[in-house]
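subagent[fold] <- orchestrator: predict structure for attached chain, return tokens only, no commentary.
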Amino acid sequence: MPPNDRSFRLSLVVATLGRSDELARLLGSLAAQTVSDFEVIIVDQNSDDRVLGPIAQHSRRLEIVHVRTPRKGVCRARNLGASVARGDWLMFPDDDCWYPESLLERYRHVTEAMPADFYCGRATNAAGQTIMGTFETRPVRIRRGNVWTTLIEWMLAVRKHDFTAAGGFDEKIGPGSGTPWGAYEVQDFVLTLLERGLMGRYDPTLAGHHPEDMTDQTVPANIAKIRCYSAGLGYVMRKHGFGLSGFLPRLLRPLAGMSVYALTGRPAMARRSQQIMIGRLDGWRRAAE
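subagent[fold] -> orchestrator:
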């Protein structure tokens, strides 16, 4: 459905592929928000109509724009959605995340109380426990040195004009990009914002929910995915001029893991650590090519 001329404070751009029940849960959580000054842009990369049911289910309570695209890649979809967004601010929910009913109101309060150019919160499971990495435990200014502990893609809020001026997400990075750089697209984007002189804030009270990955991390398919994500880290660090003094510590933990797991008779975990290290090294090396 084409957008009309209505304006919004916030546009939520949802890149979706292969999911319907999860998308319905997300839309349900958005319909329950305590504020309503937002639109939802569904960027549909599916070849079927699986998202039409969730959209119809929530279209009376939400302003939904449905955009179809044959081009795969989460960053391509987010950039496409942002290009048609009518909000002053952008957020990029995962199609399988969901938000507490007061989250968007909380974002509004934070932006009013602590002016900045962009904001981020943390990832939690349904019980409110931090997942998907290590996050700062106190509100902090987002800086070059802490982008690894203050960012998650689907909790980032950024002004649309700043997003556009920075060129959006790098479509060579992230899931579905078709490159070896399978993750760290939000760190890449925020580092670009910081290099442009913009200021960001992180607040751990801004917490959204996401399913935990409970799959076996030692099976070959998951090890391959972990290596791809790890390559993204090396690539982004080299792209943004982190020196060896900043990068080498990123190799010490998987190197230590290889030793510990080998000595304790856990060869599959040792292989996992090995591939993390190799991935990071490969990303670092190839970013200079």
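orchestrator: received. Logging for downstream: The mean pLDDT is 95. Residues 76 and 171 are 6 Å apart (CA to CA).
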